[in-house]
């Protein structure tokens, strides 16, 4: 029986549906693991098909492609190199599972299905898992969020598992990396077993994955932490002692402060969205406000200045300060900016519609962005934030809205953080107040109200206890309802917090419940 084992943990950035490319990346990671002297390489949940697969998993040709790639990867392990644990679909008996596979010696040694998939998802629940045996070591292999339910690791421990191993594709939200480790500590305490975690990295649609793999020993000490927001293949050295298996401790990377985590999430999400969409770059409006300036800085950090272009779209009444600040922002970031006054288009709508033409300003700006972007193959970006999208106050829809899950106050705080060191935003922008919609309090007061009323279970009691007027709460609640249909037309953007608009917050359009506050 072996008393030493070297396990390589890989956090990869697979592309959903790009099975051949994902398999090639897994082979490359296995070669890295072999060079490290690892006996087995562990990759994230659904690393072969790419997460999240969503309804791709219902396409028979996609399942067949994954199965063929799995067989080829299994055959490749006959070379005497490391074994391989990877994630992908498993179709059997008319059922479809989110599974992990153990490959070694040229064949598939074991399969484990996710036991607790989301009830409204595409995958069927698998049986309670037992350990998989790899070269005499009993691994407690858990797929996806199964490890979060105490019953799954406890069952594995009772079945003889020696190391708990979670293969996940867990999206980033603010505070989630720390919550993961806290929850894993609880699993270690409950089972008395060491715990290894690996996850996906990269941006995909509305999600961004931070990776952030780690290893906890049975004494709850943190032996390893992988970097956040970048691919990595990391060696871990394990030794069996009288009290079971332990992982040799490695120097831990410095913890990223919360603003830097948020920034890296935004940058990675945008970079992958542009790359996977095949866009030539991005196009955005610089309007002399903090939102558009922060968006431009994010785009430059994600893509480089050469792939970012800006439009200045002044109206007749736009003040010179805003134009100066927009131009200064472009100069600081080193991006090309084109001035395109909207007065001619606005005059045309006013001539056509009278006073109603005034309401077309946002649509004119969006149309200018869309037209210029279409001509160049660029992705048009929206600078709207969650406060604006909540009440649909501000700019019209374009192609992608990186800041859509940040509150207005978070945008300002993040802009100040990004401007430390070498400034990339004009200082005057950070001092200019961001006006809230007419009739509502400033954003420092409004954002907490919006946060409370868009929570999973809206409760006005804490707001009332803080002295907020019931009339203001009722007004915001009504505005939330009235703006619901517009939010459904908003461009997609990355999810950064819990209960985001879109998938996670589903209210009836124009619902009739108005009695939130007595």
From TrEMBL:
It is an enzyme of class 6 (ligase). Residues 5-240 form the CN hydrolase domain. The keyword ATP-binding applies. GO terms for biological process: NAD+ biosynthetic process. It comes from the Bacteria. Its EC number is 6.3.5.1. CDD domains: GAT_Gln-NAD-synth, NAD_synthase. InterPro entries: C-N_Hydrolase, C-N_Hydrolase_sf, Gln-dep_NAD_synthase, NAD/GMP_synthase, NAD_synthase, Rossmann-like_a/b/a_fold. GO terms for cellular component: cytoplasm. It catalyses: deamido-NAD(+) + L-glutamine + ATP + H2O = L-glutamate + AMP + diphosphate + NAD(+) + H(+). Pfam families: CN_hydrolase, NAD_synthase. Keywords: ATP-binding, Ligase, NAD, Nucleotide-binding. The keyword Zinc-finger does not apply. Pathway: Cofactor biosynthesis; NAD(+) biosynthesis; NAD(+) from deamido-NAD(+) (L-Gln route): step 1/1. In the C-terminal section; belongs to the NAD synthetase family. This is Glutamine-dependent NAD(+) synthetase.
């Amino acid at each position: 029986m072996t008393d030493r084992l070297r396990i390589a943990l890989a956090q990869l950035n697979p592309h959903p549906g790009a099975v051949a490319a994902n398999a090639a990346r897994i082979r490359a990671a296995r070669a890295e693991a072999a060079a490290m002297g690892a006996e087995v390489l562990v990759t994230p949940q659904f690393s072969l098909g790419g997460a999240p697969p969503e309804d791709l998993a219902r396409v028979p040709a996609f399942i067949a492609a994954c199965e063929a790639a799995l067989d080829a990867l299994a055959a490749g392990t006959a070379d005497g190199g490391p074994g391989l644990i990877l994630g992908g679909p498993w179709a059997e008996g008319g059922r479809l599972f989110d599974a992990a596979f153990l490959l070694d010696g040229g064949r598939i040694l074991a399969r484990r299905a996710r036991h607790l998939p989301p009830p409204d998802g595409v995958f069927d629940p698998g049986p309670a898992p037992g350990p998989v045996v790899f070269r005499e070591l009993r691994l407690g292999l858990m797929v996806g969020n199964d490890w979060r339910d105490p019953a799954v690791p406890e069952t594995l421990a009772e079945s003889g598992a020696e190391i708990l191993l979670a293969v996940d594709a867990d999206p980033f939200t603010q505070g989630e990396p720390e919550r993961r480790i806290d929850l894993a500590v609880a699993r270690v305490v409950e089972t008395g077993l060491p715990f290894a975690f690996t996850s996906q990295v990269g941006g995909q649609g509305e999600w961004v994955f931070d990776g952030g793999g780690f290893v906890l020993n049975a004494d709850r000490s943190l032996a390893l932490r992988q970097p956040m927001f970048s691919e990595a293949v990391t060696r871990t050295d394990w030794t069996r002692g009288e009290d079971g298996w332990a992982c040799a401790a490695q120097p831990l990377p410095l913890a990223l402060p919360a603003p830097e985590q948020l920034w890296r999430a935004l940058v990675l999400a945008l970079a992958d969205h542009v790359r996977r969409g095949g866009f030539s770059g991005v196009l955005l409006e610089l309007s002399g406000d903090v939102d558009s300036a922060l968006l431009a800085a994010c785009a430059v950090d994600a893509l480089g200045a050469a792939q970012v272009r800006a439009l200045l779209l002044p109206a007749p009444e736009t003040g010179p300060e805003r134009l100066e600040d927009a131009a200064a922002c472009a100069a600081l970031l080193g991006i090309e900016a084109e001035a395109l006054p909207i007065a001619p288009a606005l005059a045309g709508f006013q001539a056509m519609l009278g006073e109603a033409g005034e309401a077309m300003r946002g649509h004119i700006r969006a149309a200018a962005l869309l037209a210029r972007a279409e001509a160049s193959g660029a992705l048009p970006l929206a600078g709207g934030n969650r406060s604006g999208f909540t009440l649909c106050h501000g700019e019209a829809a374009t192609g992608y809205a990186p800041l859509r899950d940040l509150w207005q106050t978070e945008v300002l705080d993040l802009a100040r953080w990004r401007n430390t060191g070498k400034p990339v935003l004009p200082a005057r922008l950070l001092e200019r107040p961001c006006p809230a919609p007419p009739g509502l309090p400033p954003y420092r007061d409004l954002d907490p109200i919006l946060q409370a009323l868009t929570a999973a279970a809206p409760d006005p009691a804490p707001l009332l206890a803080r002295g907020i007027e019931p009339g203001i709460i009722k007004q915001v609640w009504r505005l939330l309802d009235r703006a619901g249909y517009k939010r459904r037309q908003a461009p997609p953007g990355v999810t950064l917090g819990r209960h985001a608009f879109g998938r996670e917050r589903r209210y009836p359009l124009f619902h009739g419940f108005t009695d939130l506050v007595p």
